[in-house]
Amino acid sequence: MKKSFIFFLLSLSCSLLWAQHELLLYGQGGLFSLNYDLKDGTHKQDIGGGIGLGYVYNFTSHWSLGTGVEANIYRSNCTLPAMKGSYTFNEGYEMFNFRYEALDYKEQQQLYALNIPLMLTYGLPIGQNLSFYFSGGLKFGIPLWAKYSSSGTFTTKGYYYYENQEYEDIPEFELRHQSVQVDDSFSLGLSYQLSMELGLKVRVIYIGLYCDYGLNNIQKTITPVMQYTMNPVTVKYNSILNSDQVSKISSIAAGIRLKFSFL
């Protein structure tokens, strides 16, 4: 009898312990984009998605606190019918002004990032094995890799102040008219996001709508779209997101999330 009672207490304790903890595996999809404004063009947001692993601690029958890690892909693109830029540097013995113009410039961007959420959730039972939930909190975003693909027609010229002379059509000095296609990486900073989610829990399945809104500017560097050096002569093309064409970049996501509880 004593052994049976001890076994009952242990079983009850384990049952209560497991009821307090949940391990979640989830997927999500919808709008996953980089949000920014362009000086001389238009920007379009795009779809993306991600997967995540979460942990939830239920400290009352209604309230819980969750965290975890998720991997997401953000996509966006932009078009600039025409843009121009210039900058001056010391070429060694006199000042040189490098000038560029681009027509029909297009760029697609992708960001692969890890998000670490901290979410407070309120749950309300509305039927047998059915409950409504609402979550709110913050997410901390870590960029893993950002890449872009761009194309456009560039015309480059050079101007020497001392000579008061503009030079063009000198291919050996990369001063020419040409079509350019570039695939390269670019840099973004850490992000802080306000996150909300609401939905239904059916047994061990969560079905919800979510929205993550970036609170800070994640633009990390500002460089010319074209970087020119003379000794030796080289041209490096940069993402529009690392240029002064963009003043602020933030992440934004909204869509459907499906979660499975394993505990």
- At the fold tier of CATH, the topology name is Porin
Biggest beta sheet attributes:
8 strands, antiparallel, barrel
DSSP helix fraction: under 10%
- Strand coverage percent: over 45%
Note poorly predicted spans. 5-18
The CATH top-level class label: Mainly Beta
Count of distinct structural domains:
1
Q: What is the averaged pLDDT score?
A: 89
Order of strands side by side in the largest beta sheet?
1-3-4-5-6-9-10-13
Radius of gyration from the alpha-carbon trace, in angstroms: 27 Å
Shape designation: elongated
Element string (H = helix, E = strand): HEEEEEEEEEEEEE
Count of β-strands? 13
For the record, the CATH architecture stands as: Beta Barrel
Q: Give the N-to-C terminal Cα separation.
A: 31 Å
Alpha-beta classification: mainly beta
Q: Helix segment count?
A: 1
